[in-house]
Amino acid sequence: MTELAINATDQDIAADLCEQVRSAYAERTPLRIVAGDTRAFYGRPVEGKALNIAAHSGIVSYDPVELVVTARAGTRLSALNAALAEHHQMLAFEPPIFSDASTIGGAVATGLSGPRRPWAGAARDFVLGTRIITQEGKLLRFGGEVMKNVAGYDLSRLMVGAQGTLGVLADISFKVLPTPTASHSLRLAMGLEDALSELSKLGRQPLPITAAAWHAGELFIRLEGGASSVNATKERLGGEALPADFWQQLRDHQHGFFTLGEGQALWRLSLPPHTPPLALDIAEDDIFYDWGGSQRWVKTHLDADSLRLACQAAGGHATCYTPHTKGGAESPFTPLNSVVEKYHRNLKTELDAHGIFNPGRLYAAF
């Protein structure tokens, strides 16, 4: 395996981070884990001493032949994507980049994925292994650089979406994929019900669709793969060509839809495939259907209970993306039922006995 140090900002400060965690553990000092701090809107605010991992950056190893890359958590997403692009490869889960300061550690900690997620997989599906700083300040490796079955806790994947509440991500190894040889995005004028029906039909066919969304009377589709397959599907579907940066703007919340009105909050509704429109008192233009309709961005003044009850009835859940200090929900994530909460508490106690890692980030009680 060829190992390449290809990041000009390559720096390993794991030893210093371990010492800071050891000190916090001994003194019972809460830590607020931060790097680019571009995802602070996602979750509850954390009170604690800052543990800044931004300087722990650089690509540790990259083997384009084996489709495996390992990067330190403070590595900027823009740098990692650029390094992969040189070899015509990519992070298939399309992590959002909310600013140039966005890091790969933050992408994994929040577990957010972009428009390709239903067709390629989520962030945790591409994490092969990690190095994690534990509550005692030990730097331990979990997983590796190959896909395999795991007995017991798969701690590497537990860290995805845990928002730093179980430990500090130091290094992460990913499976990467080749970038498609051809790509075409299109738009079709179509009402919502017709669009959802059309997406259901297309989803049952072997077509090279890697993104699908609907908003304000238009259906948006991205085709990626071999040139012949993309061209044939493009001719079949027709429509108007869509600017290539449309999906990046949607992924990174740069699309004009994400401009909130006075008193509005942004919510993400996660629903089963082919769920019809929910009975909510929300203007159609204030809902953006992504992931073929399974992920719905909503701008609304409605309260959390109303949204969550409607989602729960459809088998889904709702998450608030606007901090409560700016009009969002006090509890951004769906409250846990008693059984699930018990397991969350047990896991938190096992891995963070003194509650030093991002306390209250996910839920107020732990």
TrEMBL record:
Looking up PANTHER family in the UniProt record yields: D-LACTATE DEHYDROGENASE, GLYCOLATE OXIDASE SUBUNIT GLCE
Reading the lineage from the top rank, the first entry is Bacteria
Q: Which GO terms describe its molecular function?
A: catalytic activity; FAD binding
Pfam families in the record: FAD_binding_4
- Segments forming domain FAD-binding PCMH-type: 1-179
Which SUPFAM superfamilies does this UniProt record tie to the protein? FAD-binding/transporter-associated domain-like, FAD-linked oxidases, C-terminal domain
User: What keywords were assigned to this record?
Assistant: FAD, Flavoprotein
Q: What is this protein called?
A: Glycolate oxidase subunit GlcE
Checking InterPro entries in the record gives:
FAD-bd_PCMH (IPR016166), FAD-bd_PCMH-like_sf (IPR036318), FAD-bd_PCMH_sub2 (IPR016169), FAD-linked_Oxase-like_C (IPR016164), Oxid_FAD_bind_N (IPR006094)
